[in-house]
């Protein structure tokens, strides 16, 4: 894009990071990230490189980057947490998942269906079936409330 005088958006940089990691490896992606202008190093780019660390799996790098994202007060969504949850499940450390879920809830980060699913898989990996059922019930409750809230909003919008 730069060769064609096109300006990359921050989202373009994040996508480029992910593609670089897939095509040329994590080292190329990390070098690209390091050389980005500070203005481009937002939550999307940090999240992209975090996801790369989680896929490799590079536990210390992933945990360190997540802490840096918090220190920088970058807006966090469920995505970086989902990456870490998958990492811990992949490397056989599902016991770390509960603290991440609690952190998300404390920080008012909404758990999405993917989060609930990987959380249940982590619990199943340690044969905690009663907790899987509890999480499933929580997921159904949140789903019903979300649908009810959306329906209310739609009805309000259409009644005016």
Automatic annotation (TrEMBL):
InterPro entries: PPR_rpt (IPR002885), TPR-like_helical_dom_sf (IPR011990)
Record family assignment: Belongs to the PPR family. P subfamily.
Pfam families: PPR (PF01535), PPR_2 (PF13041)
Keywords: Repeat
Gene3D superfamilies linked to this entry: Tetratricopeptide repeat domain
Keyword DNA damage among record annotations: no
A Gene Ontology cellular-component term: mitochondrion
Ribosomal protein is among the record's keywords: no
Residues in PPR repeats: 42-76, 77-111
GO molecular function, one term: mRNA binding
The protein, known as: Pentatricopeptide repeat-containing protein
Xref: PROSITE patterns: PPR
């Amino acid at each position: 894009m730069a060769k064609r005088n096109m300006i990359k958006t921050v989202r373009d940089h994040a996508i480029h990071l992910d593609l670089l990691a897939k095509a040329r490896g994590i080292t190329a992606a990390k070098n690209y990230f390091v050389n980005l202008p500070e203005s481009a190093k937002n939550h999307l780019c940090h999240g992209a490189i975090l996801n790369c660390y989680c896929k490799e799996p590079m536990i210390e790098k992933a945990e360190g980057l997540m802490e840096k994202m918090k220190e920088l007060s970058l807006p966090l969504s469920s995505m970086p947490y989902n990456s870490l949850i998958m990492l811990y499940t992949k490397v056989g450390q599902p016991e770390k998942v509960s603290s991440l879920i609690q952190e998300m809830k404390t920080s008012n980060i909404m758990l999405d269906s993917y989060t609930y699913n990987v959380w249940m898989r982590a619990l199943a990996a340690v044969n905690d079936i009663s907790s899987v059922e509890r999480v499933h019930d929580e997921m159904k409750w949140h789903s019903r409330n979300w649908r009810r809230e959306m329906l209310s909003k739609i009805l309000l919008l259409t009644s005016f």
